[in-house]
Design goal:
- This protein is an alpha/beta fold.
- The chain has a single domain, classed as TIM Barrel, CATH 3.20.20.
- The strands form four sheets. Strands 3-4-5-10-11-12-13-14 form an eight-stranded parallel beta barrel. Strands 1-2 form a two-stranded antiparallel ribbon. The protein has a two-stranded parallel sheet with strand order 6-9.
- β13, α9 and β14 form a beta-alpha-beta unit.
- α1 packs parallel to α2 and α3 runs parallel beside α6.
- The two termini are 30 Å apart.
- The structure holds flavin mononucleotide (FMN).
- The site of flavin mononucleotide has 22 residues, from β4 and α10.
- Belongs to the NADH:flavin oxidoreductase/NADH oxidase family.
- One of its GO terms (molecular function) is FMN binding.
- Keywords: Oxidoreductase.
Length: 358
C-alpha cells in the first residue's frame, strides 16, 4: 500500500511525498509592479517539505489581476522576484509550481495599476462584492473577450508559463477552478456566448483546452497541471451540466499527458471517483470538507487509492512543517484567517515549526 509519505513521480518530477501545499492567495506583493518579495521567499522556503508547493494565484497578465497586491508573472521584475522564491525552495530540496490565475470578472479597476474594466466570457457581472482600497464594492460588468481577446489570453498564459520556467519554477498549475476566468468559460451562467467558445460543453471547454494545450506545447505537458472545481458555486458560478462538461474536458485533455489534474472537490463528492476512473493521469485531491479545513483523515485518500496526491490549504498556511506533523499525528497550529490576506510577517512567516528532536 502506498502512503502519503512515500515518494512519487509526477510528470517530470519525483516528489518526496504526496502532501501538496494547495494554492493560497496571500496578497503580500506590496509595492509597485506586483513583484514577489523577500518575505514571500521566506514563507515558501519554510514550506519546502511539501511534496509539491503550488503557489498562490499569479496573474499571467496585467488584466488577469483582480485582488490587491497579488504577484504577477508578466514582467522581467516579477520573474527576478520569483527567482528568489524558487531558489530558496530549491535550496531546501523542494519542488514548486506557479499557479497561473486569470481572475476574469472577479476583479475591480480600483485594485489594479491599469484601472481598466475586467474581461470575461460574457457581459455578466458576478453577484457580490470585492474588497478594494475604499472598502467592498460590487463586481463590475466584464468586457466580453472577442476573438482577438481570446487569442491574446491564450498567448498571455503561454508567455507567463515560459516566464515561470525562466524564474526557476518546476512547472505551472493552470487555475480552472473557483469561479475565475477559465471556470467562467466552463459555466452555464457566466458564459452566454453564441460563438464556438460557448453553448454546449464542447464549446464551453474550448478555451480551457486551448490554454492547456498551448501551455503544454510551450513548456512540456509533464510539468503542467490543471485545477478544476466541478459543482463549486464559489464566485457566483452555476453549472447546469457539470458531469457532462468535466467528462468532456478530461476526455479532451487525456491525450496530452499532463503532470496532474487537481480537483478542488465540490458538493457532488460522488462524481470524484467517476473523474478518477476517467482521468488517465495523476489525480491530486483537495477534498470537500464544508465548515472545516482538510485534516489528517485526508491521508487515507492516498492509502485507499482514491487519489495520488492530497493537497492542504489552511493547515499548510499555519504549519510550515505540515508533512512532518501529519506523519507524527500532530500537533497542529490553528490557522488565523484574519491575517490570510495582506499585511506582513504576522500570520505569514511566524507560525512555528516543531522543535527538532535531537
Ligand atoms: C487564504 C486562502 C487563499 C486561497 N487562494 C487560492 C488561490 O489563489 N487559488 C486556488 O486555487 N485556491 C485558493 N484557495 C483554496 C485552497 O487552495 C483550498 O482549496 C481550500 O483552502 C480548501 O482546502 P483546505 O480545507 O485544506 O484549506 C485559498 C484558500 C485560502 C484559505
Amino acid at each position: 500500500m502506498d502512503t502519503a509519505f512515500d515518494a512519487v513521480t509526477v510528470g517530470r518530477h519525483t516528489l518526496r511525498n504526496r502532501v501538496v501545499m494547495a494554492p493560497m492567495t496571500r496578497s503580500r506583493a506590496h509595492g509597485p509592479g506586483a513583484v514577489p518579495t523577500e518575505l514571500m521567499a521566506t514563507y515558501y522556503a519554510q514550506r519546502a517539505g511539501a511534496g509539491l508547493i503550488v503557489t498562490e494565484g499569479v496573474q499571467p497578465s496585467a488584466v488577469g489581476q483582480g485582488y490587491l497586491n497579488t504577484p504577477g508573472l508578466h514582467t522581467a521584475e516579477q520573474v527576478a522576484g520569483w527567482r528568489r522564491v524558487t531558489d530558496a525552495v530549491h535550496e531546501r530540496g523542494g519542488v514548486i509550481f506557479a499557479q497561473l490565475m486569470h481572475v476574469g470578472r472577479i476583479a475591480h479597476p480600483d485594485n489594479t495599476a491599469h484601472g481598466s474594466a475586467p474581461v470575461g466570457a460574457s457581459a455578466v457581472p458576478a453577484a457580490g462584492t470585492i474588497v478594494t482600497p475604499t472598502g467592498p464594492q460590487e463586481f463590475p460588468t466584464p468586457q466580453p473577450l472577442d476573438a482577438e481577446g481570446v487569442r491574446a489570453t491564450v498567448a498571455d498564459f503561454v508567455a507567463a508559463a515560459r516566464n515561470a520556467v525562466d524564474a526557476g519554477f518546476d512547472g505551472v498549475e493552470l487555475h480552472g477552478a473557483n469561479g475565475y476566468l477559465l471556470h467562467q468559460f466552463l459555466s452555464t451562467n457566466a458564459n452566454r456566448r453564441d460563438d464556438e467558445y460557448g453553448g454546449d460543453p464542447t464549446g464551453r471547454i474550448r478555451l480551457v483546452v486551448e490554454v492547456v494545450a498551448a501551455v503544454a506545447e510551450a513548456i512540456g505537458a509533464d510539468r503542467v497541471g490543471l485545477r478544476i472545481s466541478p459543482a463549486n458555486p464559489y464566485n457566483d458560478i452555476a453549472e447546469d451540466d457539470h458531469r457532462e462538461t468535466y467528462l468532456a474536458l478530461v476526455d479532451a485533455l487525456n491525450p496530452l499527458g499532463l503532470a496532474y489534474l487537481h480537483v478542488a472537490e465540490g458538493a457532488d463528492t460522488e462524481f470524484t471517483p467517476v473523474l478518477r476512473e476517467r482521468w488517465a493521469g495523476a489525480l491530486m485531491l483537495n477534498p470537500y470538507t464544508p465548515g472545516a479545513w482538510t485534516g489528517p483523515e485526508a491521508l487515507k485518500l492516498v492509502e485507499r487509492g482514491d487519489a495520488d496526491l492530497v493537497s492542504y490549504g489552511a493547515l499548510f498556511l499555519a504549519n510550515p512543517d505540515l508533512p512532518r506533523r501529519l506523519a507524527g499525528g500532530g500537533p497542529f497550529n490553528t490557522p488565523d484567517y484574519t491575517t490570510a490576506y495582506g499585511g506582513g510577517h504576522e500570520g505569514y512567516t511566524d507560525y512555528p515549526a516543531l522543535p527538532d528532536q535531537g
